[in-house]
What does this fold into?
Amino acid sequence: MSRTPLLILGGGTTAEDRARLEAAHASVFAKDFDELAAMDAETRAQVRAVAYRGHYRFDGTGMDLLPNLEVIANFGVGYDQIVVADATARGVKVTNTPDVLNDDVADLAVAMLLAQCRNMVEGDARVRRGEWPQKGELPLNRKMSGNKAGIVGLGRIGREIADRLAAFKMEIHYTSRSEKETPGWTYHGNDVVSLASAVDFLVVAIVGGPETVNTVSREAIDALGPRGVIVNISRGTTIDEDAMLDALEQGRIAGAGLDVFVGEPKVNPRFFALDQVHLQPHQGSGTVETRRAMAMLQLENVTACLEGKPLKTPVN
It folds into this structure.
């Protein structure tokens, strides 16, 4: 085995996760591609596996810096920043960390919808500011249970969200590439406009990447209507963000709960003036337990590659 078979790539890697990777395999670290490019060619040539945790594009240019690369083990279920076609063309496998984060992301989707419907942030603020005695109760807000929910993408996470919303006595509609086995939920094929026109709440749970840009289009947002609420825990790019902002500002939809944004962590300041929008800093999988499980699955994929065993969760 080469002296440094593992490259830990990405400034987002925590000290705990980096220490775990380094204890398992001889490693080098680079916070970004500039640091990787500055590394001596001999060291780069020894790298067989990359433990990747970054929010910047990993394409053939970066891969070519590592001539003996065998696997890119991504931290996260979404791998839209890795150009899988470039990896496949070079014989490089890509892995991700699915399933272990489903519960946390689904929980947050439901929490944002509850917070938006029940105006919970303003309620908390009114109590904290001591304004309850003077201002009294909040204006009546909106019941969440018993409405119709549409899931854009009934995959692993989408299914968990749908199961939770069904427990809130909701009628479930969904889109997916193929019809799923469900307890009688309504399938809309890939027609997001049809889905939006049939529901009160539209929850976006598809993967990111070029193929899903603006899947929730201006037409779909208009179809949702003035009582409609959008929840997005996928990627900011999956919604026509400008169209959503226009609809929110003009009262053509009722609100939104958003954990992801175009160009994050910078967020369009138009959102900040909207009281009917609940905003979160892309923290869907952000619990101690789930982030540790993601790190362990990433390490399992790295180890499997370096030991010549089948990868745990291959993408390509």
Q: What stands out?
A: The chain has 13 helices and twelve strands. Residues 102-279 form a domain with the Rossmann fold fold (CATH 3.40.50.720). The two ends are 25 Å apart (CA to CA). The longest strand covers residues 148-152.
